[in-house]
Every structure is written in structure tokens, then in C-alpha cells.
Design goal:
Layout (H helix, E strand, L loop, with lengths): L1 E5 L4 H12 L3 E6 L16 E3 L5 H8 L4 E4 L11 H22 L3 E5 L27 H19 L4 E6 L1 E3 L8 H10 L5 E3 L2 E6 H14 L5 E4 L2 E4 H12 L6 E3 L2 H17 L7 H6 L3 E2 L4 H7 L6 H14 L10
Parallel strand pairs: 1-2, 1-4, 2-3, 4-5, 5-6, 6-10, 7-9, 8-12, 9-13
Antiparallel strand pairs: 9-11
């Protein structure tokens, strides 16, 4: 298999690249000129095409000779000053990539969406791929853009393009160079900047399982179907307790009512808009924390064979990677 991979410089994309290479695939990576290069070390010119999701010609060049496409690239931010930039990448960029894949006759396409584009159950039970959802349920521009991008993918399925949609939950592990919003939760804990927590929860999964899930989706997934790539539903408090056991650092014990961080985030985000900076805690992140985003990955486990690596193993790798790469100071004796 010769595959084009978008988003290879990112957290999930870099692990998809590794998984593809381990399976013997030839991998070509489409990256922007401004993409960070840390996760691209070791690439030669034959494996790298500099381009952009908004540049159709660069996508066509990158797809030349490829029989598979893994579209992992996305603008993932919970605060964006110019929302149209996010929609141009996540929605129109997806349209451009899938249009080019159709023109090139690509036989396998995996589109990386997010559980953020799925519905939640009002009774608190884990949601699945069939839980009803509408754009009115989307909080913030990132979730809205991913919801709309899924609709684009479904349009191309109707046109005959064999697109399988995967919805990763909350990946954790090594190589989170940016880091992602979830990585910042771990990193703030390691830097001892987490004095309290709110009552929220997420579905957590090893990023390496997510990467392998992409390959399994290409091999076994049904075009037009969605697969939640997830594992354990855990509260934020439970995650901090696990990090305490792994690192020896004290977990926060104070639980805040949501209105306190919401008010602080509103001020912080407002100030960022005035000054042109970035808020430390975007208001959309706090709004999202009001919901327990619990999901049921059993369809992917059953139909794809998605692995379920223990969460503590993924947390350990994340912690060690942040320490080894100078993101946080390693405590004495660790």
C-alpha cells in the first residue's frame, strides 16, 4: 500500500505514520511549510510534499501514485480569533482532499473526525455512533467545523468514494508536541499549575491504539460507517489521582463549581481578544467541561479489533515524554 497521510506532524498523525510504516506501507506526508518538524524527523524528500489543504494542486501532486488516503490534518484549537480560518481548513480543506482522492481513484480513504462531532446522551450514559446530534449541539467553532466536515465526508460517500470515518475520543501518550488541549491538562499537572478541578469527564484512549484504529478502519471498516476510537470513561478527578500515583505529585483535592472557571475564562478570553493574545483557559474549553463526554467504543472493538491498552500505560508515556523533552521538570527520584 502506498498511502498519503495528512497531518503527519501532529499528535495523532505522527503515530498513524509509524503504524503504517510498521505494517510495511509506503507513506507520503502532506505538510504545510510552517508545520513543526519534530514529529517529521527522519523523513526524506520522497516521503514529504509541502502543500496545504486549501491548495488543490498540492493535494493532487501528493496523491499521485497513492492507493490510500489517511486524512488526519485539522485545525484543532479551542480559541480562534478568525473562525473563518478554521472552517477553511477543516471543512473546505476536507472537501478539497476528498475531491482530489475521488479524481485520483483512491481505493481506501479514512477520514479522522472527532467524538466532538457526535451527540451526547441526556441520561448520562455513554453515547455511540448512532446517538442523535445536530449542529445546534456543537459548542464552539472547532466542534462545529468537525461536524460540518463529517457532512462533507458523507456527501463523498454518496458519490461513491469509499470513506470510512473514525472518531477518536481523547488520545493521550507521547509526541504531543503542541501540546493538544488534553496534553495541556497533563502538562499543567506536571508543572503544578492545577490547584483545583471541575466535575467533568472524558473517554480516554492510548494514541497508539487510535493510530492502529486508522489502519484497521482501512482494512475492515465499512465505507460510510463511523467508528469511535476510544477506551475508558474517566472523570478528571480520576485522571489526576492516576497521575498522582504515576508521578508522586499531589493531585488537586478542591472541586470548583463550574461558574467560577467560567467567569475566569470569560475575563481571560475577553482580554485576549482586546490584546491579540491567547487565553490561558479558552471559554469554549470551560463550556465543554460542563458535560461528561462519555462514549462507547464497542463497535470499533467488535468490528475492527481496536486494541484497549490500559490508560495508565498511555499516561506514563505522556508523562515521561514531557519530562524527557523539557516540557516540565522531572521530580527528584523519578
Amino acid at each position: 500500500m502506498r498511502a498519503l497521510l495528512t497531518g503527519a506532524s501532529g499528535f495523532v498523525g505522527s503515530h498513524v505514520r509509524t503504524a503504517l510504516i510498521d505494517r510495511g506501507a509506503e507513506v507520503r506526508c502532506l505538510v504545510r511549510a510552517s508545520s513543526p518538524r519534530k514529529n517529521l524527523e527522519g523523513l526524506d524528500e520522497s516521503e514529504l510534499v509541502v502543500g496545504d489543504l486549501r491548495d488543490r494542486a498540492s493535494i493532487a501532486r501528493a496523491l499521485d501514485g497513492c492507493d490510500a488516503l489517511f486524512h488526519c490534518a485539522a485545525d484543532y484549537r479551542l480559541y480562534v480569533r478568525e473562525p473563518e480560518e478554521m472552517y477553511a481548513s477543516n471543512v473546505e480543506g476536507t472537501r478539497n482532499v476528498l475531491r482530489a482522492a475521488s479524481a485520483a481513484g483512491v481505493g481506501k480513504v479514512v477520514y479522522t473526525s472527532s467524538v466532538g462531532a457526535l451527540g451526547l446522551r441526556h441520561d448520562g450514559q455513554p453515547a455511540d455512533e448512532t446517538t442523535p446530534v445536530s449542529i445546534d449541539d456543537m459548542v464552539g467553532h472547532y466542534k462545529r467545523s468537525k461536524y460540518l466536515a463529517e457532512r462533507v465526508a458523507e456527501e463523498w460517500v454518496e458519490r461513491g468514494l469509499p470513506v470510512v470515518i473514525v472518531n477518536p475520543s481523547t488520545p493521550i501518550g507521547d509526541r504531543d508536541v503542541k501540546p493538544t488541549a488534553t496534553g495541556r491538562v497533563i502538562l499543567d499537572f506536571l508543572r503544578r499549575k492545577t490547584p483545583a478541578f471541575v466535575d467533568t469527564g472524558l473517554n480516554w484512549v492510548d494514541v497508539r491504539d487510535v493510530a492502529l484504529g486508522h489502519l484497521l478502519a482501512a482494512e475492515r471498516g465499512r465505507p460510510g460507517d463511523k467508528y469511535i476510537l476510544g477506551h475508558r470513561n474517566l472523570s478528571l478527578e480520576e485522571i489526576f489521582r492516576r497521575l498522582e500515583r504515576l508521578t508522586g505529585l499531589a493531585a488537586p483535592r478542591v472541586r470548583l463549581p463550574h461558574w467560577i472557571p467560567l467567569a475566569a475564562a470569560a475575563v481571560d478570553t475577553g482580554w485576549a481578544r482586546l490584546t491579540g493574545g491567547e487565553p490561558r483557559v479558552p471559554i469554549d474549553a470551560v463550556r465543554l467541561s460542563r458535560y461528561k463526554m462519555y462514549f462507547d467504543p464497542s463497535k470499533a472493538v467488535r468490528e475492527l479489533g481496536l486494541p484497549q491498552t490500559p490508560i495508565d500505560e498511555a499516561l506514563r508515556r505522556a508523562v515521561e515524554w514531557f519530562w524527557d523533552n523539557g516540557y516540565a521538570e522531572r521530580p527528584a527520584g523519578r
